[in-house]
Design a protein that fits this description.
Keywords: Membrane, Transmembrane, Transmembrane helix
Organism: Methylorubrum suomiense
InterPro entries: CbtB_put
Pfam families: CbtB
Oligomer: single chain
Shape: elongated
Strand content: under 5%
Low-confidence stretches: none
Mean pLDDT: 81
Protein name: Cobalt transporter
Length: about 60
């Protein structure tokens, strides 16, 4: 392997680690927010989203 190949490989590894960290942070944030939100708030948000997508729910 050449020096350029090694540097590119190291860069991809760093980007992968950062991507994984950001995805984990966002996922945990979503679970945390949904876990502590009152049920009525979650229901209303889902209901409004269904109407915004023109999906019948009644």
């Amino acid at each position: 392997m050449t020096t350029a190949t090694l540097q590119t490989s190291a860069l991809r590894t760093g980007e992968s680690a950062r991507t994984l960290l950001v995805a984990a942070f966002l996922g945990l944030g979503l679970v945390f927010v949904a876990g502590f939100a009152p049920a009525a708030v979650l229901h209303n948000a889902a209901h409004d989203f269904r109407h915004a997508q023109n999906f019948p729910c009644h």
